Amino acid sequence: MPPVAITSGVKYPVILSLHGAGGKGTNNTSQLKVWNKQLSETAIRKKFPCYVVAPQVAELWNRVHYNQVKKIIAGLPQADKNRIYVLGHSMGGHGTYIFLQFEKHYFAAAAPSAGTGLRSTKDFISPEKLKHYPIWAFHGDQDSVCPFSRQQILFEHLSKIGGNLKLTIWKGDNHGVSGKFIPGANNGETLYSADHCDREDDLLTWLFKHSLDE
Which of 44, 55, 132, 171 makes the best surface tag, with the fewest CB within 10 Å? Predict the structure, then answer.
């Protein structure tokens, strides 16, 4: 999805939106979940003009997909390569964390929701590789699909090493919180891994503040 209008000479941020397991396939429609619909709302598109790239895969997000996505983004006219953001829910949230680890200076910020892997996922996430990223994570504390306990472990690790992780927790919520993270804090409790974490409570406002050249 391109910006509502493209003005000559203006560069536009890019949001890479990764779907969860329920979006897997090849039909190029089932990956368009509730947060993509929110991003396509006219008011949001006018306030935050950007590209939204919502690819679809048939398996867990991996390096091959990452390389394919980079080719797509490289072909977008007037895309701001310093302001590429990645977000997603469930498998897409986990994919967000995975993509961040492939390369140090590609994404400017990230927003994973319920993103620390399915119960059957064996691999975990390296806090050291995430330390320099501005990350705003979201999770229901009763999530039994992508366990909240893993997100807690990651938060604790990043707190110890001075990472830049905000964690919004929806108490009493299970896995089905995919419609809540685009608005931001949205009545959740937000924790900060360090004093330098930005306290902004609107996700897109927070996201668009970040740039690789800042």
Answer: 171
User: Across the beta sheet with 51-53, what order do the strands follow?
Assistant: 51-53, 12-18, 79-89, 109-113, 134-140, 164-170, 189-192
pTM across the whole model: 0.95
Rg (CA), the chain: 16
Residue 4: inside a domain: no
Q: Which domain holds residue 59?
A: 12-208
**Residue 152, SS3?**
helix
pLDDT at 28: 81
CATH for 191: 3.40.50.1820
Q: How many angstroms separate the CA atoms of 36 and 32, rounded? A: 6
Instruction: Examine residue 139 and state whether it is found in any structural domain, yes or no.
Output: yes
Condensed to tens digits (0 to 9), the pLDDT of residues 111-120 reads: 999 998 665 5
Domains: count for the chain = 1
